[in-house]
Each structure stands twice: as C-alpha cells, then as structure tokens.
Amino acid sequence: MTDLPRYLQLLWGREPEGRRGPKPGRTIEGIGAAAVEIADREGLEAVSMKSVARAVGFTTMSLYRYVDSKEELEAVMLDVAYGAPTFTYDTGSGWRDRISLWARGIAQRRLAHPWTVELIQSAPPLTPNVLAWTEHGLAALEDTPLTSEQRLSAMLAIDGWAQNHLRQSVQMGFTGPVDPESPQGNYLGLISQLIDPERFPQLTAAGSESLGDPDDNFYAEEFDRGMGLLLDGIAALIERHP
Amino acid sequence: MTDLPRYLQLLWGREPEGRRGPKPGRTIEGIGAAAVEIADREGLEAVSMKSVARAVGFTTMSLYRYVDSKEELEAVMLDVAYGAPTFTYDTGSGWRDRISLWARGIAQRRLAHPWTVELIQSAPPLTPNVLAWTEHGLAALEDTPLTSEQRLSAMLAIDGWAQNHLRQSVQMGFTGPVDPESPQGNYLGLISQLIDPERFPQLTAAGSESLGDPDDNFYAEEFDRGMGLLLDGIAALIERHP
DNA sequence: GCGCTACTGCGTACGGTGCAAGCAGTTACT
DNA sequence: AGTAACTGCTTGCACCGTACGCAGTAGCGC
C-alpha cells in the first residue's frame, strides 16, 4: 500500500491529527482556486508557481509545502474547475435524459474554464470532485441492463467525446464570437489557399458548404448532434443486450 | 489574403523561386523527423529547440530559420507522425468498413507516437499530411446520403473519440504492459484507499468488476467497443435520413 | 565584371521557468 | 524542558524559448 501523495492527502482530508509545528496558513482548495482564477483571467500559460504564490500571498517555494510539483497543482486546478456536481436526476427519468443532463453538466463546467483542454494529465484523476462526477455519470446508467464494464465504457465514451468537442471548438475559435482577423478566423481562407481541389475534393466541398458561417450556435448544435450519435449507439447496445 | 507562416510555406513547397543567398541546409521534414525521433525515444519533454537543433547538426537559433516558434515545430512533428495515408478502400466496401479502416489507420499512427496526445494545438491543423487524412476520412463516407456537413461531423466525432481513447489509455498506462509498481499500476489500490463505498457505490462496483485485470488487449477491445457505439449511431442517422 | 540585397547559420544575451537545499521560527509531542 | 516535526522564506541552479546582431554566401540588376 503506497502512501498518498501530499496533494491527495490534503484534498481528501487525510492528514494525520496531532501534527507538530504551525498550522498551514492556506488550504489547497484556496491555492487551486487562486490558480483557476489566474487561468480564467489571463490564460493557462500565466499560471506559474510564482504567480499563484503571489496571488495567495506566498513566496514561490512555499507552494511546495502543499504540492510536490506543478503537475499536481494542475490536478488540483482541474478538481476546482469541476467542482462538486450539484444537480440530481429526476425520479422517473430514463437513462437517456439522465446521461444527457450529466454530459451537459460536464460540458458546462469545462466551457466555463476552457483552459482545461490544455491540461495534459499523465495520470488518471484521483481528486474528489472529478471522482464525484464519475460516480454521478455511472449512476445515470444505473437502470440500464448493461454490465458495469459496459457502463464505464459508455460513460468514458461520452465524457471523452464532450471533452474532445470542446477541445476542437476551442482550437477553431468557435467558443466565442468569430474574429475574421484572427488566424482561426480565416481558417477557410488559408485552407482554400493551400489545397488543390483535385487532390482534396471532399475537403473543398466540405469547406465551401458547411464551414461557411460558423456562428455562435455552432458549438451547441454540434454538441447535440454528436451526443445524439453516441446515445443512439448506446441505445442500440441496450436493445441487443441479452 | 494573409500570407502563410513560414513552416506552412516550407511544408507545402510554396517558396518563391529565384531566392538569393545560400540554400537551406536542411528541410523542415528532416527537422520534424529528428524531433519525432527524440520524442519517440525520450518523450515529448525531451524535445527542446536545443536538442532538436543538435540532432540535425544545428545551433539552437538556426531552427528559427525554418520555424517561427516551438508551437510551429510541434505542428510539423504532428504532420510527420501522421505521415501520408497509404491505404486505399476496397471497391465495393461499404461506408462502415471504410471508416473503420480509416479510424484504425489513424489510431495506429497515433499509437506509434503516443506523445501526440500531449500536444496542445491552439490552432486547427493546416499541414499536408493531416489534411490528407481528413480528406481520406471524408472520402470514406462519400457514398452515404449524408450532407457534407453531417459527414464532417461524423468524421470529427470518430477522430475525436479515437484520439480521446488513446489519451485516456495512455493516462491509465494501458498502452503497454502494466507495471504494478508505477503510480498508474496501482490506480485501483489508490482509488479503493480513497473512496467511501457508501458515497461512491457505482465507482466501487465498477472498480472491483471491470478494471480487475486490464490486460494488454484492453486498449484494443475498448477501441472496438466505443467505435461500434459510434458507428451504430451513424447508421441510425443514415437510416432516418430523408 | 560589379555592388547591392536577401538570404544562410552562428553567438551572445535576457527574462522566465520549475525546483533542490538549507534557513530560522513555531508548535506539540515525550 | 528538550526534542522532533512542521511552517514559510531565501538563495541558487540548470534549463527553457527566443530577440538581436553577426559574418559569410549566392543571385539579382547594372
């Protein structure tokens, strides 16, 4: 049994009691919240050990009393960004409504903190809020006849898709008003400048047709479309289930 | 009409002819390949302007004659990692076989260079090989009655899911032999140490049942399962198409 | 031929990063 | 009372991406 890394001990409140020395002056949640605030305001690249420390009134190295590395700080940030799931499922609602609600909830949290898509997590999440969301997602599929392995697969697929959709949308600059002067804004201009219509017929067609006017609703519409695809797939899986 | 960033000019062979001065001693493709080799061998964090420059026999700053920033270098790396799609679709094969083949092809390339999931692309891809794969994916759906907008959506959903599955698998350490000593290896140990079975009943159940023995085939099996979900969804979309 | 000019790769320098190590001061155990 | 474990702080290091100016080179217009 390996003992827990520091930040997990703190997040889960697993500190041994009766510890000597001064009480810690901050909480990791507070530190994470400060980091999140910086990321929301100035972008993820503005989050450094120094800037976060300053935001909580610390010197740089003091942060290492709460977190062993910047990567761990990022895990805390993600947990703060998720927050605890606040909604509950209507009694009587079916799995499709439930998991949709859940997916929308996750998408909403992530959309409020778009920098989450820039985080690279080299380890699976073990923080309280993220695990709470996972639990909530599994619970949405509780009434289906699927095995828990299938439920986990389905949930991971949905979560993964939602996350990826946000990622792609952020890349394309579709999450806010489209600025035609920005490099993303004239993506179409650049692409048509590059590709040979004979070598890239499908792309040429798709470009002129579909991406013609990516308006503000593009993100939401695409979200519903893709989610519908996945839910139909899950429905098919359930129907053919023994 | 904005003019192209340097690395795109080089990748697409759009340099003006009759240029003065010495010929460039390297190609971006070569530089990208060197960077890919470093990433394959020592991980993405070992890729620095210095290390790449040394690998091609340059000083650090010389790289900036080919690329305006490290981010552009990463775009080149991704393009090299993808390579050009080499396969063709069987005549007579249906869309389902075709897009499956395509998805497998992409997954294979990415799996050969797992660090691709760590790349954060802040702009949509405009490099030749990546666009060639996109074209190839759209062509797989050519025979379906879907609009090109729907085809694009479907393809993005599949690609996104494949990419995300790889990302999650890499995080979990499922892409290679499982080392129980590594932090990912005893993920289950850690999780069971943290969660209260009463507050996290679904997770507890899922953990003990499904993740019991994540063997080498877990990645591939999960890939097929999720892909099946998506393809079923697309099939449903096609059936109800006017 | 000539210089001019745009190009090559190189050397130096700068501000910023994450983090290792040792510090004096504080608190609660033995 | 003494000691051991903790707090936050200070200093210092190796490394990062990249701005800027350099001498040398190849093709242009004359």
Automatic annotation (TrEMBL), chains A, B:
<dbReference type="InterPro" id="IPR009057">
    <property type="entry name" value="Homeodomain-like_sf"/>
</dbReference>
<dbReference type="GO" id="GO:0000976">
    <property type="term" value="F:transcription cis-regulatory region binding"/>
</dbReference>
<protein>
    <submittedName>
        <fullName>TetR family transcriptional regulator</fullName>
    </submittedName>
</protein>
<dbReference type="InterPro" id="IPR036271">
    <property type="entry name" value="Tet_transcr_reg_TetR-rel_C_sf"/>
</dbReference>
<dbReference type="GO" id="GO:0003700">
    <property type="term" value="F:DNA-binding transcription factor activity"/>
</dbReference>
<dbReference type="Pfam" id="PF00440">
    <property type="entry name" value="TetR_N"/>
</dbReference>
<keyword id="KW-0804">Transcription</keyword>
<keyword id="KW-0805">Transcription regulation</keyword>
<keyword id="KW-0238">DNA-binding</keyword>
<feature type="DNA-binding region" description="H-T-H motif">
    <location>
        <begin position="48"/>
        <end position="67"/>
    </location>
</feature>
<dbReference type="GO" id="GO:0045892">
    <property type="term" value="P:negative regulation of DNA-templated transcription"/>
</dbReference>
<dbReference type="InterPro" id="IPR004111">
    <property type="entry name" value="Repressor_TetR_C"/>
</dbReference>
<dbReference type="InterPro" id="IPR050109">
    <property type="entry name" value="HTH-type_TetR-like_transc_reg"/>
</dbReference>
<dbReference type="InterPro" id="IPR001647">
    <property type="entry name" value="HTH_TetR"/>
</dbReference>
<feature type="domain" description="HTH tetR-type">
    <location>
        <begin position="25"/>
        <end position="85"/>
    </location>
</feature>
<dbReference type="Pfam" id="PF02909">
    <property type="entry name" value="TetR_C_1"/>
</dbReference>
